[in-house]
Amino acid sequence: MSDHPSPLIENYLGEAGFWHVATIGRGCKLDPKLISALIKRWRPETHTFHLPCGECTITLEDVLLQLGLSVDGYVVTRSAQSADWGAVCYELLGAILDNINGGRIEIGWLRDTFPEPDNDSTELERIRYARAYILEMIGGYLMLDLSRNLVHLRWMLKFVDFRVTGDFSWGSAVLATLYKEMCGAMRPNKAKIGGCLSLLQSWARFRFPFLCPRVDHPYTFPLITRWNHLASYVGISTSLKDIWLLLDQRSKAQFQWTPYEDPVIRAVIPDEFFQNPNIWHVNVPLVNYAIVEMHQSDRVLRIPGKPYLLLEEERRRQIHIQRERRDPLNPIRRDDDVGLSTAPTQSSSPLIAPIQ
User: Fold this and answer.
1) Backbone angles phi, psi at 70, to 5 degrees
2) In this predicted model, what pLDDT tens digit does every residue of 58-72 receive, in sequence order?
3) Which residues on adjacent β-strands are paired with residue 354?
4) DSSP 3-state assignment of 130?
5) Which secondary structure element, helix H or strand E, spans residue 173, and what is its range?
6) Which residues pair with residue 231 across a beta bridge?
């Protein structure tokens, strides 16, 4: 990502729900060995990491507090109609490329075409710059794909009115994309992974203190910005085998189930992020266009004195409910007798119901 956005577009990013995540700026350096060690413990069947401490996963709460993205609102779905991407690009950005590859454009083109506005810029120029900046964040940081330098113009259809943009659950779309990418990375022939890997890395550092570098800087919001500062890795294992060994040996005793209850951390989180604390404790489909990933937070409920494990009785109840409520998002599968199906499915029509 480029540096922090211009203050001239703060009000537009705020309306769209992207101001907090925009303040992350250039972000932090990724640790590929830590990410690889986590992927090795990921299970696509349940969308959880299987560790000696039990099942754990990245939740909507983590997305909300780590990135500052809303997880409450309407699901982000594809328009039922095909679009003329050249016309969309020109209408919303005021510029057009010579070559739009299947609706995707180069992120570098956005940076070159839309320089930071100055005090003499018009309102229309600022709006277009804000749209380009959000599109760059989505394609280059939040929901990047394996191309690494392309972003689809379909997101632009959500940026016509920033007030409407802010009504969508962008956080659930980011989490659905990350779930999908981690599931895809489990395939033997897969060598790359997309999605918001900074979220994955920051989640691990808040949960596994023995893998966390030392940062002599106060917490800031969004919480992921903690790793933007100079960090000391003295005494921190950096080899892949050592990380695997630490996860096996120390996660059961030292895994932090509730890191955000630390008063020092809660003090920097804006009050509005605690207004609806139960929105991540439900089973909901996480939808990102045609991607549907089940967010089963009941699998990681706290049991006093024990890890977050799914009770067998609760598991059977979920399976029963799943069979009773078949819909296009949860078609009958041959593996229904095994457990809940969490594989991505195709949705032919957009969903408009809000998720809470």
Assistant:
1) -65, 140
2) 999 999 999 999 998
3) 74
4) helix
5) helix 170-184
6) 215
